[in-house]
Amino acid sequence: MDLDNLYQDIILDHAKRRLNSGLREPFEAEVHHVNPTCGDEVTLRLHLDGAGDDASIADISYDNQGCSISSASASVMTELLIGKTVAEARPVHDAFLEMMRGKGRVEPDEDVLEDGIAFAGAAKLTARIKCALLSWMAYQDALIQAQEAQHG
Amino acid sequence: MDGLLPELEVVRKDFPILERTLANGRALVYLDSANTSQKPQCVIDAMVDHLEHHNANIARAMHQLGAEATEAFEAGRDKVAAFLGAPSRDEVIFTKNASEALNLVANTLAWKGRRQLGEGDEVVITEMEHHSNIVPWQLLTERTGATLRWFGLTDGGELDLSNVDELLTERTKVVAFTWVSNMLGTINPVAELTRRAHEVGAIVVVDASQAAPQLRIDLAAMAPEERPDVVVFTGHKVVGPTGIGVLWGSSELLGELPPFLGGGEMIETVTMARSTYAPIPHKFEAGTPPIAEAVGLGAAVDYLSHLGLDAIRDHEHAITAYALDGLATVPGLRVLGPLDAERRGGAISFEIDGVHPHDVAQVLDSRGVAVRAGHHCAKPAHARYGVQSSTRMSSYLYTTPGEIDALVEALEYTRSYFKLG
Q: Which residues of A touch B357 (CB under 8 A)?
């Protein structure tokens, strides 16, 4: 594939700036996810303000070791989700997963995914899908743990 | 360039895949042979011929095809035995791959028998092992209460043997290590380590997955005290097919280990209460084995022997030296492992400042250059050198200096693509 289609400026820019990176307090859940095929890792913390679907995503902080695709994906995700409620974040999360698992055949909605549409090229490459999904799966896991902790 | 295989261009024509092109008409530059090697036409033909003309189950079919299939399968064993210089052809056990061969040994050492491990016993491995020569020993020691210990590595990428007397004691029951590292390329001192391990009464298990493709192995010629008790390798790295691996074990050890998998073909007689077992090799080959694969593997090791293992080693050595020189010209590139081609095999792992290995491999792939990126199933060895992952080029008997030039040029392009000057 055309390299520039994969490494769009949005991705290279996010990979360099790594928005919201670094681990911060407070948090209700911390998860550690790895990509077993390559060893890429992310530690991700989630801080919710409130409970249930109306809870606001007050912060997502993370520390990662990974390629430009996985670093940029974490950066884009935090930029998209911080400040939204859990309910508002869900369709964004779902749309990103649908795009990444769509083998390049899913036309992404820029209104929903914003900078996230830049990963449409990575979705065509089996080897890179997990890179792009690593932090998103970590967020999903952290959300479940944070909500369980609140109920517990 | 000295040392290259004579008539390299003719040899390359034996490998049809090397002629294919990739996206955008790019020529294939295949530098991932430590991952899996490409296959010569004679191996493909041998397997197709077997399936077209001789296919039947082995050892139990009372008809002409059954006899032909059995003969072809056992001829594969003879060829592998010759390839290894095995003292006896019955010591060659076919498995699914090298991992299964290592698991066979590690599992049966946990079970009731003369060699069963227990608390107080120790298993010694090394920090440069492939995960398949780490995890089975972790499982063994967890199951038996034995203790797992390991040799560390020097900064130069070799085994640190400075504490060998402290590590190898009368408690040591197994010493398992790789002949050639799949990540660092290091060639380990098999004879010396085996002798030291035998002095304390331990059995020695050697992973020859990366050695068998490029070093001559002659077990019968080794002094008994320097000959490992088990040597394993996989078919697909020696220009053979996937789906078949080899466990060579001394008759003495294989006789002492209990069976691994139970089933057809591994028995002598079966009653509802108990069974008695066939002698080796069949004792360890339950069920229908990989028959066409054994035929293909036989053709593969014959092909390597025809070219000559010494000539292949010289070729790998020349290409590796040329590659180390070429890689040294790329700014910000650091090779992990020995920098002296004499002391290493043809797999060279490296990192480049400022570009993740995934991204390196992606850009190389866009230029037709196939390498591996990641931890290469050797996470502890990466951790030892403070890196999470690396890019690995690995050559083989069909690699040309021109392909190394293409790699170096593509690495320069990678640096410019990610704006590293």
A: 38, 67
